[in-house]
Design goal:
The chain is of the alpha+beta class. The chain contains twelve helices and twelve strands. The strands form two sheets. It has a six-stranded mixed beta barrel with strand order 3-4-9-6-8-7. The chain has a two-stranded antiparallel ribbon with strand order 2-10.
Length: 371
């Protein structure tokens, strides 16, 4: 009899039931989409901001040189997966066959992550120890009339010479366009600065403000070094993430409040229409908990159906947001489903409180008078 009453109530007032279903579905959809983006945004935003390049600088306090071994120690002490790319840089003057040029010694393996904005004609160099190939800035290549595949020879004196094959031409939009880029070990030997570097640049994960914490720790451990975040990049990452997350949270709260009001108003109207039904049930011996259970079950059935539909629609919305903003799909993280279920049930619970009180306060004598 209980289930018959519940199903009959849903069937006979289908229009109002669909309004409740639609309101809860919209709420569940927005929560699903926003929470899916929220939990996946750190990865996506970090990937986007990595196109800015390095976000962490290490140099000497006295404007001199740093030791490569210090950089190695910093990398060894760093928490796992915190430093995503790193390289010391050594600059110096060398003589080519035509003129003096600036060479820049680097670790090639992480160079694409440290300078992802470089436009390279040809190919990049993938191993640190490659002393047969080099990359050259576009402006310098034009001045020396070099192209990919040509050779450039450096000479220290009449006897000591070294030739590189140009593997890639770099257009960076900065001073790198005027440099010859070689592996760090060669630059140290050629410039007679073994084990030294001018500075070092890192790409440090910063989705939760780790850059500042890492900098403070290193400043205590290496007081002789100038260690600081490159704030234009690292600050942007944290600020943008905080603003976007705050906006998504605000949107979710507003939608949930509106959904609660819509469900509450519709349920009050339904209870008003069913006043005689509840009065008759009381007259036949129904207890308060029986009416509460009946209304709660009806609302729960609608909410469960809305949650299922909301999860599906929300996932599609999350993909649209991901492709529009980040040009990448959004992964559905584990917390998304329980958050959607819990918040949707809370909305339904809050919305059903006042209508249930109205149903319990129905006066049998007034409602059934004359029946």
């Amino acid at each position: 009899m209980f289930w018959r009453l519940v199903l009959q109530a849903l069937r006979l007032r289908l229009n109002r039931v669909m309004i409740i279903f639609a309101a809860l579905t919209v709420g569940a959809s927005i929560v699903t989409a926003m929470s899916a983006v929220y939990f996946d945004i750190n990865t996506k935003m970090s990937q986007e901001l990595r196109t800015f390049g390095a976000n962490f600088y290490i140099g000497a306090n006295n404007s001199g040189l740093i030791e490569e071994s210090q950089v190695q120690r910093i990398l060894q002490q760093a928490p796992k997966n915190l430093v995503q790319a790193a390289s010391p840089y050594l600059y110096g003057i060398a003589r080519s066959e035509l003129e003096k040029i600036v060479i820049m010694g680097v670790w090639f393996e992480d160079l694409q992550k440290l300078a992802p904005y470089w436009q390279i004609t040809g190919a990049s160099i993938g191993v640190n120890f490659d002393d047969r190939n080099a990359m050259i800035g576009k402006t310098l290549a034009e001045r020396l009339h070099l192209k990919v595949g040509d050779n450039i020879t450096l000479s220290k004196n009449a006897v000591e010479k070294h030739s590189f094959k140009i593997k890639g031409i770099v257009e960076s939009g900065d001073v790198t366009d005027n440099m010859l880029i070689v592996n760090l070990e060669f630059a140290q030997n050629w410039l007679e600065k073994d084990g030294l570097a001018s500075n070092a640049l890192f790409v440090v994960k910063n989705d939760q403000g780790q850059v500042e914490q890492f900098a403070h720790q290193l400043q205590r451990d290496f007081p002789d070094l100038d260690i600081r975040p490159i704030r234009k990049v690292s600050a942007s990452e944290g600020q943008i993430l905080d603003k976007i997350k705050g906006l998504m949270g605000l949107i979710s709260v507003v939608i949930l409040v509106l959904a609660t009001l819509c469900v509450n108003t519709t349920l009050i109207a339904i209870v008003g229409e069913r006043a005689k039904e509840f009065a008759l049930q009381k007259a036949l011996g129904a207890k308060r908990r029986d009416i509460i259970l009946q209304i709660g079950t009806e609302t729960l059935i609608i909410a469960c159906m809305a949650i299922i539909m909301g999860l599906l629609i929300g996932y599609v919305l999350a993909q649209i947001l991901g492709l529009t903003v980040f040009k990448a799909s959004i992964d559905m993280r584990l917390p998304v489903i329980p958050i959607t279920v819990i918040l949707s049930l809370i909305v339904a619970f809050i919305a059903v409180i006042i209508p249930t009180k109205h149903a319990l306060n129905v006066e049998m004598a007034k409602v059934l008078k004359g029946e």
